[in-house]
Amino acid sequence: MEDLARERAQATFDVNAMRILWAGGEEAFHFHNKLASLVAADPVFLKENKPRLTRKELFLGGISKAARCRELAIELGLSEGDARTLRTLRDDRAYDDLHWNMFVPVLRTQATPEQQRKWLPLATSMAIIGCYAQTELGHGSNVQGLETTATFDPSTDEFILNSPTLTSTKWWPGGLGKVATHAIVHARLILEKDYGVHAFIVQIRSLEDHKPLTTITVGDIGVKFGNGGNNSVDNGFLQFNHTRIPRTNLLMRMAIVTREGKYVRQNVPKQILYGGMIAAREIILMEASLNLSRAVTIAVRYSAVRRQFGLDDGSREIQVLDYITQQQKLFPLLATAYAFRIAGQWMELLYSEVMSQFESNDFSGLAEIHACTSGLKAITTSVTADAIEQCRKACGGHGYLCSSGLPELFAAYIPAFTYEGDNTLLFIQVGKFIIKTILNMRRSPIPQGTVEYLTDIDIHTTKCCEVSQDDDWSNSNVILDAFKARAARLALSLSKRIQNFRNQDDGFEELSIDLVKVAEAHCQLIVLSKFVDKLQTNIPGLNVKQQLQLLCNIYGLSLLCEYMGDFLATGYMTKSQGSLARSHLRSLFSHVRPNAIALVDSFNHTDHYLGSVLGRYDGDVYTHLYIEALKDPFNSDVTDGYEEYIKPILKKEVMQVSKL
């Protein structure tokens, strides 16, 4: 315990100022603290024993916490954003996450004003509970392959929804299995011909007794990965047997079906269909920084408490965090958590701006934010999922215990790699966007936003790295230039190869692995550039900016070293310059070490939210590991099964020994 107290005493920056920056401002910081304290003190949000609960107990716990969150949101007059923070702090997923993060945003982006006037008051008051039913048993990422049909019946002015095959069964929507009363269902719109996949609002359960409607088969798909994980969520399946809905239940912002059955396309881009996805991915980006910071907090604190091996002079064993091998594992992840947070805060502002444009039918920013949220969702969730496991391994054997909090965190987080867009396919989409931007540059407007660096593609693909000594890498703009050159060179090289194909789509298919590489380079550049941009602003607090500068350089250099092959293969830098980068990165770890505990404290996670014995704020790890073991109901003086299975073996062996 004294180790963490000593670590905090040696901090050289204003921890409270860093907490405010992480929270997004002083008001957000104080409000977060208020909600976090409220959640930690409320018995409904108790997290004890979660890994040992049955599926039914997990589900009931989830819906009870959701109900309490709704009560508090009304009682405290919380905005939707603040209510989302409350749901995050309860640290238990339930149906309401999907209702607010998918169902409501889709209504806002895909419904007409008239439809919004009808449905939004019902949804935002939770007079109805919604889910998002897109994925099917046989199709996920390939939305155009969905099989559910919605056929118009002009005699009754209704659509008839049907599940024509087993593989057309809706599969995976959170909240669908047990709770949702309504679903936004993606189905093929059939008039005189198939008009492709469109979104419909469909009631699936009675608002009187909650029973499924007669033409609907619905249920839960079963237990998922992990002890607790996401098993508090009722991911469901759904089949339609000629289910009738009013024609006006088609979300018509993109296209209208008239009373006569005529299909009329609206003057909006087809990408508006991704409005709900964009909203969800913007949230996912912030969640990545949150979950990564949790894992890093646990691992860094435990590494400061844990001591292994000692000096020959008989002094105390060495803190594990003092070993450079441990620093190499954890400090880049610490820097990445800050990088993702700053990128997430930037994305929140961009999303708000684009949504305001949406309301005035200005869709000019849609392509940019769609590509941006797709790429950042992919890069942040991929890195975070791997990083949680890295942190678990960095905690040694104790990290394998559920009481460490890391196995549960991993189980709950890894679906983010797949939901709201498989990461590999998202990278391919972003790669295509970048290549098309390059190929269209001569006849299209100058690239803006996150692809603006491509306007200087000639410079980035000809100018090489000028680093000549170790310390040159201390300039974050030097690191940023390297990432711009790498991204531009990979993209330009691939665009030339794509042009060799007679059919562009054939090229994209053949070179999809390279598209992923181009997208990864682009997304890493976005995150790094937003970190560098942040450093150009006024950042209050003693040495806060200095610490962020250090973390920014560690983030950039750790990636540069990890992807060294790209920087060398594109001809931007030499092996000796790469060696200087590695050397400088190692030297930065010693500058982070004195502030490592203060930097994870700045994430401002309560013990309740962390849910980890190893990551306790007070550092009293071993006492509570032992207490957790004693509390396990599995422990007893004589184990169950002794008489039936153990005693006969022992007695038999005793008898044989006595005969000898």
UniProtKB/TrEMBL annotation:
GO CC annotations on file: peroxisome
Active site residues per record: E420
Residue numbers binding FAD: T135, G174
Record-linked Pfam families: ACOX, ACOX_C_alpha1, Acyl-CoA_ox_N
Acyl-coenzyme A oxidase N-terminal domain location: 14-129
GO molecular function: acyl-CoA oxidase activity; FAD binding; fatty acid binding
UniProt keyword annotations, A-Z: FAD, Fatty acid metabolism, Flavoprotein, Lipid metabolism, Oxidoreductase, Peroxisome
UniProt KW Lipid metabolism keyword: yes
GO biological process: fatty acid beta-oxidation using acyl-CoA oxidase; lipid homeostasis; long-chain fatty acid metabolic process
Cofactor(s) this protein cannot do without: FAD
Domain spans labelled Acyl-CoA oxidase C-terminal: 476-651
Subcellular location: Peroxisome
Matches recorded under InterPro entries: ACOX_C_alpha1, Acyl-CoA_ox_N, Acyl-CoA_Oxase/DH_mid-dom_sf, Acyl-CoA_oxidase, Acyl-CoA_oxidase_C, AcylCo_DH-like_C, AcylCoA_DH/ox_N_sf, AcylCoA_DH/oxidase_NM_dom_sf
Signal sequence interval, chain numbering: none
Domain Acyl-CoA oxidase C-alpha1: 274-435
Similarity field: Belongs to the acyl-CoA oxidase family.
Protein name: Acyl-coenzyme A oxidase
Species per Swiss-Prot/TrEMBL record: Araucaria cunninghamii
Source taxonomy: Eukaryota, Viridiplantae, Streptophyta, Embryophyta, Tracheophyta
